[in-house]
Structures are given as structure tokens and as C-alpha cells.
Backbone:
């Protein structure tokens, strides 16, 4: 196939590229006791993370790095497990290591974080002092977005067909019970804010597996923060007497009372079911038009932990020096760039080289847009399909409706679906950090079909100083702005770096 075709013969207009240096505010989301360890392709992590970043898909660069999911600092651990104090003391010295991701997300796996009287997710001690703290996001609200999932609140209880936590972490597969628990008494269930059946957990903990207690406590916090009014949330996360605080105290080193933990969890389940049955939860969802970025990252981490993390080693199988190199933009990075490009639920997002689909999923969940991805490598494609299936089930479980997701296999230069949707794209992501010059030149030729005003996000500029025919084409059709991303916003390096947003003229 000719790389440029006839379109590449267009004579460049005599224009000079406009490059603006814009300082990106280095304000990170507060660190939270939530998933922080997996390779989230292109991003969520999240940090939003996914990564993740959180995600999120398509990004390809460098070798897979098993480190920090969202690049955020680790919160103070209140774990009852041995050496938790040592872990806290060592957090500072290990911060440079934590900038990269581990293989699994959902917790720093070497430090199961259970609550005690000092734990509050790094937030202010009174979570009800300001409701804006419980539901915050920097971008303007997209009032046209409808968040409530149409199938989540019917008369009958639904089976969301999720992969349960117990399928990934259980006594049967070698995970020991948490301190104070017996192997035959670890089974619990967790209700989510929908009319779906609860998720099954076992109260176990093992490095590089789902931390059951931390996962449960984080779900309780997100339910109260996002789905309930201030008054409704008090029994769930009040600092002194709530269900969450009862669970934290029961599991603390002082008590290690698993029976009390299970009793508080059952009370939480019953309390949430009552609010769902009364119609309060679906009514509350109807009043909001966005999800907080940390909740988006957590849901995406849950998806990743149950699909990609158990098989993450296959992502390191690629040909070095080719275009097919794996790397990720993490959750905070993806949130940042999609906000910069004014993404909304009525727009179209495309990720060329979408890896395991993280960015595609993050865009659909966080912004509600139509979200497309295309990947050529078989292993990432297989994992992307697994993620998409779990993603749909998890969104139903959480009672929220994402934008439509479309994941394509094959070469994005020839994929018919992708070539057609590029004509509609409002935002295009290309993690071209490790792309060859031939592939970058082919992309410029593809950009000729983009509509005016389309935003192209890339890690390398498509316009450079070298005087070549293809560079003249890029110069004539693109206005380019240069930005700097924050440290720990990509999986392959802890340092800051540059990215570019080009606008099709």
C-alpha cells in the first residue's frame, strides 16, 4: 500500500507553525486509599489511574513497567498486618519506585490498608463539611449527559455477570485469611448502588491479589460520596459511628474482630438496599451529570484487576524496535488532556493504537462520549475484549451508563471502521512516542481526512524543523501547541515530559 497516496502530493501553503508553550498546573489529585498498581494502557491510572488512568488504552512505549497505577503518592496505611509501620516509614524512600506501576491495581499489594481511627483516605476529618469535597471535578459539567443506567433499577434483581473478587482472590487459590479470620468464615457479599446482585468476596489478602477489605471500604466511600445526599451518607461514612468506621475499627490491630466487620458490612448492605428500594439512589443519580475522576479510576481499576492483571505478563511480549511497543498514559494524564480538548458526551473520541483499551474505556465512562480504539497486537486485543465485557457489567453494577465503546482489531491505516469514524472524530489520541518515522508520516496523510477543529493529542509533534514534503503537509494542515505533563503520568518514566495538541485547520 502506498503510504501517502495521491493526497500526499498536496502543495503546502507557505505558513509557519505556531507553537505555544503552555504551563500545565502541577496540581495532582489527593492520594487515596484505592487501586494503584497496574499497566493501564494510555492512562483513569487515575489517578486517575488508570491509570488509568487511568487510563487507558492505545499508548505504546518502552517495556511494561509493573509499578504505581496512577503515579500518586501512597496514603498513610492503617493496616493491622505485621510490618505496616515499616511500610509507612519506607514509603518516602520507595516513592521513586512507586511512580511506576505494579502488575495489579486496586491496592499497593505489599500494604493492605485497613482503617483505624486515624484513617480517612487523606481527606479532611469531616467528610460532610462541604459536599463539593465529596463530588469534585475540575471540568465544567456536561448537563446533556444522562448518567443513570436504564437497566440498573428495575423491579427485579439483575445478575450483572461480573467477574467476582472471589474468582481472583480466595482461600481456594492460596490466599490466606486476613488476621482474625478462619478459612471457613471469610465469605462476604457487597451491595453496589443498583438493583444488581451483590459482588462476592472472601476476606483474604495476598500480595499482587485484590485486597478484599480495602476494596470493600473504598466501595462504601464512593457510594456515600457520589450516590447519596449528605444526610443519607452519614450512617455510611460518618467519622465516628458509620458502617465504614465500624468496619475499620473491627479490622484494626486493636480488635481484629472479623464477626464485627461482617455485621457492619451486612448493615451497610441493608441500608443501601433500602435507599435503592425507596428510589432515593436512582433519583440522586438523575441529579448529577458526571462521575468524580477518582470513582472513574476505581471502577476502571476493578475492571483491570479482574481481567488484565491475572494475565499481565503477556503484554511484555512484543518486538523491540517496532511500532508495537507497549506503554501507558495514566489516569490523571488522560483526564487532563480530555478536559483540555473539551470532551463531552456528544463528541467522538478515537485512540489509534489502543492496547488493552484503557483510554477508550476511560473516555466513555468519564465523559460519556462515543469512544473508539484500534489495536494490531493480538495479546492486547484479547485483553481489551475481556476488559470491555467486564466494563459493561461493572457499569451496570454501579448503576451508571457509559458512552458507546467500539474496539477494533488490525492496522488503523487500513481498518475500514476506523477510517470512516476518523471523519467524525472530535479528539484523536496517538501515543506516537515510539512510532517509526514511516508510521508517523502515514498518520499525517490520514489527518487530511479529519474535520476542521479536530484535536490530535500526541507525545511527539507531527511538525518538525526538517524540510521534507510530508512535514510541509503537516505544517499546512496543523496548528500545534506544546505542553508538559506531570511526573509519573506515564508508565515508562517518572520524569516530566512533553505532549502536543494539534488542531486540524
Residues:
Amino acid at each position: 500500500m502506498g503510504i501517502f497516496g495521491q493526497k500526499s502530493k498536496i502543495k503546502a501553503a507557505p505558513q509557519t507553525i505556531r507553537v505555544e508553550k503552555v504551563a500545565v498546573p502541577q496540581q495532582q489529585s489527593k492520594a487515596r486509599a484505592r487501586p494503584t498498581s497496574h499497566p493501564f494502557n494510555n492512562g483513569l491510572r487515575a489517578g486517575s489511574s488508570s491509570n488509568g488512568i487511568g487510563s487507558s488504552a492505545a499508548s505504546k512505549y518502552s517495556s511494561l513497567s509493573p509499578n504505581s497505577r496512577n503515579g500518586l503518592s501512597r496514603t498513610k496505611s492503617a493496616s493491622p498486618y505485621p510490618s505496616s509501620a515499616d511500610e509507612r516509614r519506607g514509603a518516602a524512600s520507595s516513592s521513586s519506585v512507586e511512580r511506576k506501576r505494579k502488575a495489579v491495581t486496586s491496592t499497593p499489594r505489599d500494604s493492605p490498608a485497613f482503617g483505624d481511627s486515624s484513617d480517612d483516605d487523606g481527606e479532611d476529618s469531616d467528610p460532610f463539611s462541604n459536599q463539593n469535597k465529596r463530588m469534585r471535578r475540575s471540568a465544567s459539567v456536561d448537563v446533556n449527559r444522562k448518567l443513570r443506567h436504564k437497566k440498573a433499577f428495575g423491579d427485579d434483581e439483575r445478575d450483572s455477570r461480573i467477574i467476582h473478587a472471589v474468582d481472583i482472590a480466595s482461600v481456594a487459590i492460596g490466599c490466606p485469611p486476613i488476621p482474625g479470620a478462619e478459612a471457613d468464615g471469610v465469605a462476604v457479599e457487597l451491595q453496589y448502588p443498583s438493583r444488581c446482585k451483590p459482588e462476592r468476596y472472601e476476606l483474604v489478602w495476598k500480595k499482587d491479589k485484590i485486597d478484599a477489605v480495602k476494596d470493600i471500604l473504598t466501595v462504601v466511600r464512593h457510594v456515600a460520596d457520589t450516590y447519596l445526599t449528605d444526610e443519607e451518607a452519614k450512617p455510611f461514612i460518618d467519622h465516628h459511628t458509620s458502617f465504614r468506621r465500624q468496619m475499620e475499627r473491627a479490622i484494626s490491630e486493636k480488635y481484629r474482630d472479623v464477626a464485627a466487620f461482617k455485621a457492619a458490612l451486612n448493615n451497610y448492605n441493608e441500608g443501601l438496599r433500602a435507599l435503592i428500594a425507596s428510589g432515593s439512589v436512582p433519583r440522586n443519580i438523575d441529579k448529577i451529570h458526571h462521575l468524580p475522576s477518582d470513582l472513574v479510576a476505581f471502577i476502571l481499576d476493578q475492571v483491570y484487576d479482574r481481567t488484565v492483571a491475572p494475565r499481565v505478563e503477556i503484554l511484555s511480549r512484543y518486538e523491540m524496535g517496532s511500532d508495537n511497543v507497549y506503554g501507558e498514559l495514566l489516569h490523571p494524564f488522560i483526564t487532563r488532556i480530555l478536559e483540555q480538548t473539551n470532551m463531552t458526551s456528544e463528541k467522538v473520541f478515537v485512540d489509534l493504537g489502543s492496547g488493552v483499551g484503557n483510554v477508550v474505556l476511560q473516555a466513555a465512562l468519564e465523559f460519556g462520549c462515543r469512544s473508539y480504539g484500534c489495536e494490531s497486537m493480538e495479546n492486547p486485543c484479547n485483553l481489551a475484549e475481556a476488559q470491555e465485557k467486564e466494563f459493561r457489567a461493572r457499569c451496570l453494577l454501579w448503576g451508571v451508563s457509559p458512552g458507546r465503546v467500539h474496539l477494533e482489531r488490525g492496522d488503523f491505516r487500513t481498518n475500514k471502521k476506523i477510517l470512516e469514524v476518523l471523519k467524525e472524530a472530535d479528539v484523536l489520541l496517538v501515543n506516537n512516542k515510539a512510532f517509526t518515522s514511516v508510521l508517523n508520516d502515514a498518520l499525517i496523510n490520514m489527518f487530511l481526512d479529519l474535520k476542521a477543529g479536530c484535536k490530535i493529542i500526541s507525545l511527539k509533534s507531527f511538525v518538525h524543523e526538517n524540510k521534507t514534503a510530508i512535514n510541509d503537509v503537516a505544517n499546512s494542515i496543523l496548528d500545534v501547541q506544546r505542553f508538559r505533563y506531570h511526573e509519573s503520568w506515564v508508565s515508562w518514566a517518572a520524569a516530566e515530559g512533553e505532549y502536543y495538541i494539534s488542531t486540524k485547520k
In short: The CA atoms of residues 127 and 133 lie 7 Å apart. The radius of gyration is 23 Å.
